[in-house]
Amino acid sequence: MIRKLASGEYRLYSRKVNPKTGRRRNLGTYKTCAAAEKHPNPARPCLPWALDRQLAGLGMRKIESQACNFIFFPLKELHERACDALNRALTPLSRLAIAPLLGAQYVVKAQKTAWRSA
User: Which residues does residue 107 pair with via DSSP β-bridges, in sequence order?
Assistant: First the structure.
């Protein structure tokens, strides 16, 4: 949620209310509404093609990528052995193109293509 402050800046708040405090968490203050909207949302999964586009926008070229290690939270914290067993069972799926969408970590090797002038 984004609110405009009296100073003309925009403040980004979390969508969910903290049950302990009864308030939304402050995620930062930005000069423009567009800048606040660009803030990464931790609830949104990292999509491989979106990450590849972000790298290209930063002047980087993807050399190779792979999905690995299925880690499910909060299962990892609640029952570590079950999480490890699930990871071992799903590891063969990490070679598939859809693996990052199933919860695998997406690891990318990238190279800077050109230096930007300041």
Answer: 66
Adjacent-strand bridge partners of 106? 67
Structure tokens at 18: 């903290």
Low-confidence spans in the chain with pLDDT less than 70: 40-46, 73, 114-118
Task: Answer whether 0.70 is exceeded by the pTM.
Answer: no
Dist. CA 103–CA 47, nearest whole Å: 10
CA distances from 47 to 8, 35, 41 (A): 33, 21, 12
Place of tokens 């405009």: 4
CB 96 within 8 A of CB 116: no
Long-range contacts of 13-18 (CB under 8 A, 24+ apart): 15/43
Buried b (16+ CB within 10 A) or exposed e, 93-106: ebeeeebbeebbeb
Rounded Cα distance between 70 and 105, Å, is: 7
Kind plus residue range of the DSSP H or E element containing 29: strand 24-30
